[in-house]
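Hi, here's the filled form for the chain we discussed.

Project: internal
Contact: R.S.
Residues: 271
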Amino acid sequence: MSEIIEVSSDWLALREAEDARARSRELARAAARRLRSGPIVIHDLGSGTGSMMRWLAPLLPGPQTWVLHDWNPSLVDCAANGAVPVDRRGRPVSVHTRSGELAQLDPDDLEGASLVTASAVLDVLTSDELGTVARACVTVGSPVLLTLSVTGKVRLDPPDPRDDAFAAAFNAHQERLVGGRRLMGPAGAALAQRLFLEAGWHVRAVTTLWRLGGHDPLLVEQWFDGWWDAALEERPDLEVEGAQYRATRSTQMRRSALAVTVAHTDLLAWP
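And the returned structure, exactly as it came back:
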């Protein structure tokens, strides 16, 4: 990518438990049923520190080899040097890493794939980059499991009259230009579904939800701060109103009185 979207390992660690709770186990089981018997190879795109591998490996048969692809070498180094997950029978998986940009993904980069996965990645790709990824997956012909793609739908409870303006500004920020690249943002999952259907593939889509509340106060706080900051970056004219809005929501968070639901889409595509 011409400009990397930086994601901190601390943020990935903070959200990992909620990611694991939210992802569709139904689609994971459906993906497992479409794997050939014997050793399998899973290519995970935009793998970060390996949270998808840690969640999915115990749900799949083995032996398993995971190939983690990410444009940030420091994140995949964390994955490679961390605890090794096990497959459904308790056998450790094999882990390999590759650093590179998904914009240049080639079918050869997915050599031997039994399954291709990605989590929370589609929103930071452009339509051309997502087309490149889809074409590579179709050429390889293995099932594809894409989880936690944002939809732009967020609900805060208790509601506030200012919620809609900040949600709209955040969604516009998700579709911003970054280094000349127009990000897909909330439209990523719908485009991925269309690309696989146009290729003649089958697609199943499931709505998956982050449910943030008093049980994870730090995650609620950091999610809200990032959401609010992005909205103001997109709409500086909201600054005065935004300060009052943030004060209200901060008081609710200190009292564990704010609940947030963030909607995602999980997709399974197969030939």
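Let me know if anything looks off before we file it.
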